[in-house]
Amino acid sequence: MQKIHSLTLLLPIFLLFASCQSIDEKAEKIHNHAFTVDTHVDTPYHLLNKDFDIGVAHPFKKGGSRVDFPRMKEGGLDGIFFAAFTSQIERTEENILAARSKADELIDSIYSACTKNKDQAEVALSVADGYRIEKDGKRAIYIGLENGFPIGTEISEVERYYNKGVRYITLCHTSNNDICDSSTDKNGEEFNGVSTFGEQVVDEMNDLGILIDVSHISDSSFYDVLKLSKSPVIASHSCARAICDSPRNLTDDMLKALSKNGGVIQMCILDDYVKAPDTTTIGYKKELELRERYRKAGKMTEEEEQKIWDEWRQMQIDYPKDKPTVADAVDHIDHIVKLVGIDYVGIGTDFDGGGGLKDCVDVSQMMNITKELLRRDYSEEEIGKIWGGNFMRVFKRVEELASN
Ligand SMILES: [Zn+2]
User: Fold this and answer.
1) Between the CA of residue 146 and those of 109, 248, 319, 385, what are the distances in Å?
2) Distance 65 CA to ligand 1 centre (A)
């Protein structure tokens, strides 16, 4: 009798353990089968730091990089887009040239990192490259250009960046540029969407087979791009505005238009896009101050730029935020799937550009997203679509429609 009683007590514990284990195993299996891709990380800035070795696993440290090749493998991530990011400052000839050389330097650092670690990673230029590199048991490293600022008003620059391996361009960043209006420019809209030069850029990107990234662009720019582009587009790192009211996120109407276009939104895990921030904390005010200083600084020397980055890293240590969770982020996926179906959503974390959750701090913890999707009864096939199937479909279509 006593024996039966203790067994009865143990049963729920055993069942709980068994179900946890099966979710872990299922997640592992999905990551082994699917081609998984994160479409936006800002890791290249770390590559410029001579002391950072991307070929070695680093324990997670606040202010340190959230991405390296061994941790990508641990997190079951096959492909990634490294963003060559330049911030938007005053559009003078001198500043454009400086942004161009910075973007080139970042791109070159991606090639060097892959050459140095050729047993672990390789630069990928096409859909086929990604699958081949994965088969070889390596990480596929794609290149994105975050902000079209380095293009200036030189249309030939688009092809030069294509030839350097860039496969998506985020048309603008936090302020307007010569291509289009931004969703967060302090002075509002300048062109009411895409400029005349921007129309040429969209055309050229279509022709070359460069994905058009609508993250960061204003709502009117977004609708203009959908009208102008012959190919489907992506939002490489954005969320749903219905869940978190940020101008960086897409409204339900935009999500519907994106699905009609055949494009994809890659859910971002940057806290302020996942959940509205607590604007009363000292950390929030400090962050605003630093952003404002950075915006006003204009062209900076290497040392000045490094100083801002150091301050940014220190701020994360001194004023840790109460980050949202994987469950909060997956609420965005749920919303998008309910609204437009399973075929139009993926993942673009923005690691090293502000991305990271309480329970997904770095690329080694990516499977926590998969486990949450499994808990919410997404099937293996559906999760495969979210982890890369949808994005690669769009990428393939953009390649097919290019008229090289
Ligand atoms: Zn961004």
Assistant:
1) 15, 14, 27, 24
2) 16
